[in-house]
Amino acid sequence: KGGGPVPISLGALALDTNSGQVGPVCGARLDPQSKLVVPITMGDTPPPSTRGSPIQISMLEEELMSRSMFWRRQRATEEHLNTTLLQMKTIILDALPETLHEMEEF
Questions:
Q1: Angle, CA 35 vertex, CA 34 and CA 41 arms, to 5°
Q2: Entry pTM
Q3: What is the pLDDT of residues 46-100, one digit of tens each?
Q4: How far apart are CA 8 and CA 14, in angstroms?
Q5: Could you give the strand order of the β-sheet that contains 36-41, starting from the edge strand earlier in sequence?
Q6: How confident is the model over 9-33, as pLDDT tens digits?
Q7: Contact at 8 Å (CB) between 8 and 17?
């Protein structure tokens, strides 16, 4: 069909240079033989590893658990701080009229 050069758009459908199938464009590269910029489609990219090593998985699980515990403690600390601040505000506002009255008498 060849309509001449067309812009390469991310996400647009293009012919996969390896498989010959049409797939979405995820980048571009320079073809060293033709000296042309050609699209990289999802079919051109190697599939991501679906599973890490047992050590990597263990480390990741440990990291996730640590982060979860940190945020749980952080929420508890902030809730305690918020409660304390509200109590202090109440005490100060309740004492304010008396303090103002005493200052007027002084």
A1: 80
A2: 0.43
A3: 566 667 788 888 999 999 999 999 999 999 999 999 999 999 999 988 888 777 7
A4: 9
A5: 13-15, 22-31, 36-41
A6: 888 888 877 778 888 888 888 888 9
A7: no
For the chain, the three-class secondary structure string (H helix, E strand, C coil) is CCCCCCCCCCCCEEECCCCCCEEEEEEEEEECCCCEEEEEECCCCCCCCCCCCHHHHHHHHHHHHHHHHHHHHHHHHHHHHHHHHHHHHHHHHHHHHHHHHHHHHC
Token pair in block for residue 58: 């263990």
Cα separation of 106 and 97, whole Å? 14
How far is 28 from 40, CA to CA, in rounded Å?
5
CB 50 within 8 A of CB 62: no
Q: How far apart are CA 106 and CA 90, in angstroms?
A: 25
